[in-house]
Design brief:
binds iron/sulfur cluster; two-stranded antiparallel sheet; about 400 residues; 18 helices
Length: about 400
């Protein structure tokens, strides 16, 4: 597969490093998934195998996975300038001019020795699928609250609660002394007892002083216990997943209430922004899907007003496929682009967001073989089960898309 350097990339930097098609993640990172599998990073579209056998957290240790045949193969490919087919998300993002995780990984290339001698220094833990919310863009794999709905409406019988076993926790404890960055994902990591156990272990054994913690949270949890733990780590990056505001937020993140989450974030900002800014940094992560794409200008404006100065990071939903903005009809994409263009022309957003707007244009230009009807089917399925009404919550966008619904059987 041809690897094309994205336009914005500083070619000199890459040339200087001599590895123009490199990704550093497989040389120092390992990820445990919520359903008990291993990956080299969160973007990889496959699970790791060792000579064809899929590795599981039940049977294989972190170190087994880190030195598995798939990982050796992946590293060899990168060093030979080849891209692995399971890296397609990074490839696609770079093709749209987006700073992919692969390109971000160069920040970790502090010592080139790591390429010769891979060493596990970073962990991404999807500790479990235990979650207190049932977000529209999620699934039973990542949220325990989704399990019953998936079983009742999608016939998904297999999904159950996933959680790390005591043996898995022991395995993690063994590598913690070497870890410099720990990413916690979910489910909701701050809602999970095992997360607290691991972090408390880090604090009690003095490892927390050397670890940068990265937590992706839905922002529903704020309490003194968490504040004390976070303040014990070398540094904390708190990423709040906020995809919308007000009633639309409540609809998309079932179980959460916008005002409460907003209040929690402001509380975290107080401890991070005023006490020790260098220690806890907060960021908003907004995932762009069909649900919120039309409202991005209003969302940016409100985030800027409610959380002044806070960094906002936008990323694109890749799955569930039915909810990806790639599937929107050309006419709808044109209306959305027009709306985005207006805010740029009117200077109604900070210049820093112009790059995001350009990324959205580029991403909207990607075509898809998933019919737009899949969105209506999924939205109707959810509305019917949850007793909600998309049309009432998103009236402006509904007016634009309603005529594209061809199969109204789910109504
Ligand atoms: S290129 Fe992307 S998907 Fe592949 S290992 Fe690197 S970060 Fe992961």
């Amino acid at each position: 597969m041809m690897w094309k350097l994205p336009k914005f990339l500083n070619r000199e930097i890459i040339k200087e490093r001599n590895y123009p098609r490199l990704c550093v993640y497989p040389f120092f990172n390992m990820m445990l998934t919520a359903d008990g599998k291993y990956k080299p990073c969160c973007k990889w579209t496959d699970n790791l195998k060792d000579y064809g056998r899929e590795l599981t957290t039940e049977e294989d240790s972190l170190i087994d996975a880190f030195y598995s045949s798939d990982m050796q193969d992946l590293r060899a490919r990168f060093l030979n300038g080849q891209i692995h087919p399971a890296c397609q998300v990074c490839l696609e993002e770079e093709g749209s001019g987006i700073l992919s995780m692969r390109l971000d990984s160069f920040d970790y290339l502090l010592k080139k020795e790591i390429l010769k001698n891979p060493h596990l220094k970073r962990l991404d833990l999807y500790i479990s699928n235990i979650c207190n919310l049932k977000c529209r863009i999620c699934s039973a794999t990542y949220s325990s609250k989704w399990i019953k709905e998936a079983q009742d409406t999608l016939g998904q019988e297999a999904e159950t609660h996933h959680n790390l076993t005591d043996a898995n926790l022991d395995d993690i404890r063994k590598v913690l002394p070497e870890i410099i960055e720990l990413g916690l994902f979910g489910g909701e990591p701050m809602y999970n007892q095992e997360t607290l156990e691991i972090l408390t272990y880090c604090v009690e054994n003095g490892y927390s002083k050397n670890i940068q913690l990265l937590i992706n949270t839905n922002g529903t949890i704020y309490n003194e216990q968490w504040v004390t733990i976070l303040q014990s780590f070398k540094k904390v990056l708190l990423n709040f997943s906020l995809d919308d505001i007000d009633k639309r937020f409540d609809y998309q993140r079932k179980g959460a209430v916008w005002e409460k989450v907003r209040e929690n974030i402001l509380n975290y900002l107080k401890i991070s922004g005023f006490q020790d800014k260098s220690k806890i940094e907060s960021k908003i992560c907004c995932t762009i899907s069909i649900f919120n794409i039309y409202y991005i200008p209003e969302i940016i404006e409100r985030f800027e007003r409610d959380f002044p100065g806070m960094h906002i990071y936008f990323n694109f939903l890749h799955g569930p496929y039915a909810l990806s903005i790639k599937n929107l009809p050309i006419e709808v994409k044109r209306i959305i682009k027009q709306k985005l263009r207006t805010i740029v022309i009117n200077n109604s957003i900070r210049k820093v967001h112009n790059r995001t707007i350009q990324n959205i244009y580029d991403f909207l230009d990607i075509s898809s073989n998933v019919p737009f009807q899949a969105f209506f089917d999924e939205m109707r399925r959810g509305d019917q089960y949850r007793k909600e009404n998309f049309e009432l919550i998103f009236p402006e966008f509904w007016t634009i898309i309603k005529n594209f619904e061809v199969n109204k059987n789910n109504r």
